[in-house]
Specification:
Layout (H helix, E strand, L loop, with lengths): L12 E4 L5 H6 L2 E4 L5 H6 L2 E2 L7 H13 L2
Parallel strand pairs: 1-2, 2-3
Length: 70
């Protein structure tokens, strides 16, 4: 857990696509929905990335790192 490594949840990026991901997406500092996510996940996320077939997780990480370095 984030408590064990002393990372505040505001510093955590969560990526999801299904209803079981909603709690984590809401608790994290940055929430990302996959393009192939259900609508409920897309609506609750900060932004949507490409699908898993298009390396969406990698794209989300790069996007997040670029924003942090601005």
């Amino acid at each position: 857990s984030s408590d064990q490594v002393q990372i505040d949840l505001s510093e955590v990026m969560a990526i999801g696509d299904q209803a079981n991901d909603l709690e984590l997406l809401k608790a994290s500092g940055v929430s990302v929905a996959m393009e192939n996510a259900i609508d409920m996940v897309k609506e609750s996320a900060d932004y949507t990335t490409a699908s898993n077939d298009q390396s969406g997780v990698a794209q989300a990480i790069y996007h997040y790192l670029e924003d942090k370095n601005k």
